[in-house]
Amino acid sequence: MNLPLDPRPRDRVLGLPGASLDRLMPMHVWISATGDVVRTGPTLPRLAGGPVTLRPWTEVVTLRRPRPTMRLEELLRMQGVALKFTLNAAPEIALKGLVVPLPGGAALLNLSLGISLIEAVGRFDLTLSDFAPTDLAVELLYLNEAKTAVAGELRRLALRLNGARVTAEVEAATDTLTGLANRRAFDEALMRLSASGLPFALLQLDLDLFKAVNDSHGHAAGDAVLRAVAAVLRGHCRGRDVVARVGGDEFVILMVDFTDRAKLSDNAARLIARLEQPMQVQETECRISASIGIALATRQRHPSPEVLLQEADIALYESKRRGRGRVTFYDDWLERRRSANGDTG
């Protein structure tokens, strides 16, 4: 490698102080007549990963257009031509350049970032001080900052709107008093479950003695009891089951893939026993019970949602008629009715 007579970094180029040159051209390269880099602006070493002085200019950048060359004489003949370079330390970083001859066969190469501007800014953490004040890159950086700020604000707005939408959807499907699903959410769940073909049980539950609580202790106590009932139902059911309040003291439960009659009967009986335990409301002991009607959708028998609701309602009415605080399956009621009518089917 041919070194200049004085390898120390120069402080002046054509009488211009180095600090001024750095400000005007933060990515300049002063190439000696022997082809070695004598001085660079402060930005170039950041892109190259360290100092590049005292090295041949061809080890720092590679001329791509208008024609590749490794000879300084040919580079100097391209004065006034828009040049395209790549940075050897990061070949994917495209550079633009202009070359100006200096006395004695030396050259001043002024580089700037091309289409890789945004990538380089992020990758090398460049700031405005890394660019000449008149460089269009400064304007592009401002635009990119503005774009980033706007995009960030739009993302935050989208998240807020999405959160508001989700909240609104949840609220629209939630019973405000108990936090359970409401009638709308239950109807949608029943439609989906019916269309899926999965077996499931539909339990319709109505509270017994609840009117006495309202009459004796007021609606505030009644609301507290309903919230307590909702907590019992949530704790009693599985995570994939749907529990909803569909009326004043009316609740429904969809138990997915659970149609074993003996297990369902035991499950419902335990639920009634739990609800019959005394509840402390406003320092007052309240007692209620519940009647339950059950309709089944099995793989062999899959009635429409409307029919299932009607069957569960009939079974619930039968539980009420037979003394309350009990469980009735629709098909048991149907069998008793046929027997009473002498229909052997």
TrEMBL record:
InterPro entries: DGC-Regulatory_Protein, GGDEF_dom, HNOB_dom_associated_sf, Nucleotide_cyclase, Rev_trsase/Diguanyl_cyclase. Residues 198-332 form the GGDEF domain. It comes from the Bacteria. SUPFAM superfamilies: Nucleotide cyclase (SSF55073). Signal peptide: none annotated. It holds the Pfam family GGDEF. This is GGDEF domain-containing protein. The lineage of its organism: Bacteria, Pseudomonadati, Pseudomonadota, Alphaproteobacteria, Rhodobacterales.
